[in-house]
TrEMBL record:
Protein name: Probable phosphoglycerate mutase
Residues bound to substrate: R8, H9, G10, E11, T12, Q13, W14, N15, R58
Active site location: H9 (tele-phosphohistidine intermediate), E82 (proton donor/acceptor)
The organism's taxonomic lineage, starting at the top: Bacteria, Pseudomonadati, Pseudomonadota, Gammaproteobacteria, Enterobacterales
Keyword Isomerase attributed: yes
PANTHER family attached to this UniProt entry: BROAD-SPECIFICITY PHOSPHATASE YOR283W-RELATED (PTHR48100), HISTIDINE PHOSPHATASE FAMILY PROTEIN-RELATED (PTHR48100:SF1)
Keyword terms: Glycolysis, Isomerase
GO CC annotations, alphabetized: cytoplasm
One Pfam family from the record: His_Phos_1
Single GO term (MF): phosphatase activity
């Protein structure tokens, strides 16, 4: 069985301002760095062997804090990036026009093939994420990778592992530095494939942690 831990990066300046990031970026806040240390302590004794991060700065910054505790190098994989949110990246949710807000919600509200102009669809996001996790099955036996990723990306990954379509409305909360786990099971008794073991656990965080937009 392959075990994969999933961590959403720590709080960023734009998360705190409710500004849309997508594949744009902003640095962690002080709170975000504290969250990263707390999730690092949580996973310290889980036998993590590989630390793989989205190549966006906020994820790498979180991964580097984990790396100091886990004493592992950080590898990056651009397939773990957040949904490309096109023309809305960099905008504050409170400043969107009603039309922009409808566009923002469209990929998250059950509309197949919805995409923010110049962005990507949830199916395209799901495809690259599943390519990335399927590659983890090629790691040597006993490997336990931890991925540092993003809110919409992890929500899409967990939803699709559970059999929901990529465009299904979001029904899971993935706060900054929440911990999730998926396993690849291949036993005789159970359907072969990825399965969700834990999603969105924040029991290791000592203060408030924000939901994604
Ligand atoms: O702002 C965004 O792009 C998303 O809503 C949250 O993304 P994040 O998990 O990278 O903060």
């Amino acid at each position: 069985m392959t075990i994969v831990y999933l961590v959403r990066h720590g709080e960023t300046q734009w998360n705190a301002q409710k500004r849309i990031q997508g594949q744009a970026d902003s640095p962690l806040t002080e709170e975000g760095r504290i969250q990263a240390k707390q999730v690092a302590m949580r996973v310290k004794n889980l036998g993590i062997t590989h630390l793989i991060s989205s190549d966006l700065g906020r994820a790498v910054e979180t991964a580097e804090i984990l790396a100091q505790v886990l004493m592992l190098p950080v590898q990056t994989d651009k397939r773990l990036r957040e949904l490309d949110m096109g023309i809305l990246e960099g905008k504050c949710v409170s400043e969107l026009t009603p039309e922009e807000d409808m566009i923002r919600r469209s990929p998250l509200s059950g509309t197949p093939d919805a995409r923010i102009p110049n962005g990507e669809s949830m199916q395209e996001l799901a495809n690259r994420l599943h390519d990335a996790i399927d590659d983890l099955r090629m790691l040597p036996d006993g490997s336990v990778p931890l991925l540092v990723c993003h809110g919409l990306a992890l929500g899409c990954l967990i939803g699709t592992v559970m059999g929901l379509p990529a465009h299904a409305p979001r029904r899971i909360r993935l706060r900054n530095c929440s911990l999730s786990r998926i396993d690849y099971q291949a036993g005789e008794w159970l359907a072969e494939g990825w399965i969700v073991e834990t999603a969105g656990d924040i029991s290791h965080l000592e203060s408030h942690s924000a939901d994604e937009l």
